[in-house]
Amino acid sequence: MPGLHFSDPLRRALSVVLASALLSSASTALLACATKRPIVDPHELTEQGVERRAALRAELTEKSAPLLMRAAFGPNADRTIDVLVLSGGGDYGAFGAAVLRSWKALEGPDAMPEFDVVTGVSTGALIAPFAFLGTPDDLVACEQLYRNPKPDWVRTRGILALLPDNASLAEVPGLERELRSAVDRSFAERMAAEGARGRLLVVNTTDLDQGRAQAFELASEAKRAVDSNDIERLHLIMLASAGIPGVFPPREIDGTLYADGGVTSNILYGAPVRYEDSLAYRFRQAFPNAGPLKVRYWVIFNNQAVSPARTVQRTWLDVLGRSVEVAIRSSTMTGLRHLYSHADSVTQRGDGSIEVRWLAIPDDWRPKVEGVFKKETMSELADIGARLGSDPKSWKTTAPEQ
Length: 402
Fold this sequence. Notes:
Layout: H1 9-23, H2 42-73, E1 80-86, H3 93-104, E2 117-121, H4 123-133, H5 136-147, E3 155-156, E4 170-171, H6 173-182, H7 185-196, E5 200-207, E6 212-217, H8 218-228, H9 232-241, E7 251-253, E8 256-260, H10 279-286, E9 293-304, H11 316-349, E10 352-361, H12 375-389
Parallel strand pairs: 1-2, 1-9, 2-5, 9-10
Antiparallel strand pairs: 3-4, 5-6, 5-8, 7-8
Helix pairs in contact: 1-11, 3-4, 3-5, 3-12, 4-5, 7-8
C-alpha cells in the first residue's frame, strides 16, 4: 500500500510512474487538473492550525483518562500501558502486517498484549485500525490485503499527468476500493466501541497548508462517522496519511490539504509533548499511591534500519529518490533514538519506567524483482515478518546505532 518510505522509495515510485506516463498513449490519457483552491490569509491559516492542535490535545487528554484509570484499577491493575507504533513503508507494510498476525498466535508471557494505544503513519496508518481491533480475523485480513496487491492499486494518469496543474502523477482507485470495502460501517462501529473503552488510535498526516504534522484520533473519528452515517471522512484521513506527495493525490479535509504523514514524522510515539502532558506524569499526579506507571513501546519499522548500499546515477530522479530515502530513514532512526532518550529521562525523573522494543526488516534482505507493489516482494516480506513475529527474541531492546 502507498507510503513514502520503502527501499529506494521515491526513486522506485517515481520511476514506475514516470516511465508508465511517458510510455502511455496521449490519446488515452485524461487531464485531471487540480481545482484551484481559494487563497486564505496566512494569519488565518495559522490560527486554524493552532485551534486544530489544541482540540486534538484536549481530545487526547480526555480520552486517555480512562486509560490511566484502567492501568491503576482495572482488571489487571498492573500499571502498564502498551503502545504499538507502526511506521510508514509503502508496499513493505506487508512485513508489519505479517508480524502482527503471527505474534497474535503466540500464547503465554510472550503473547501480544491488547494495545492501549496504536499509532500509524502512511502504510502504518492503513494497518493501524486492524491492529487496534486486534482479533485474529482482523489481522489475517490485513495480511492478506498486503499479500495480494491488485494491478489497479496504483494507476498512472498518462503523459498529460506531467503537466504542472495536475494533482498527482498517479491515482489509487484500487486502494480506495479496498479501503472502503474493509473499513465499512460495521468496522467503524467496532473502532468506536474500542475507543469508548479509553483506547487510542492515532494516525499522522502532513498538513500541507501549515507545513507541519497533524495527527487524528481515529476511534473518535469513527464514532463521528457512525453517528453521521458518513464514513468517507475516515477514509480520507487514512488515504491522506498514505499519500506520497506528488505521486498520489493529496486529500482535502475541512478545507485543509493533507498528504503523507511520513513527511513530518515516520513514527508517532508522543514523546515530544509538554512534560505535564506525558502519561507518566499525569498518572503520578492522579494516582500518587498507585506506584509508578510502566509504558511499553512496540515499534514496527516497515523498512530496513540501514540503507542498502548502491551506486547512485548522476540523474535528478536517482539523486532525488536516494536523498529522500536517506533523509526519511535517518529521521526515523533519530526518532527512535529520541524515544530511548525519553525513556531514560522519565526513569531519571522518577515518574515511571519506559521500555522500548523494535523490529525492522533484516538489513541484508534485497527484493528479488524490480518495481512497487509486486506480489513476489510483498509475499516474501510477509513471510519474513511472520517468522520474526513468532519469535519473541526478534525484538531489539537497545537504540539503533548512529
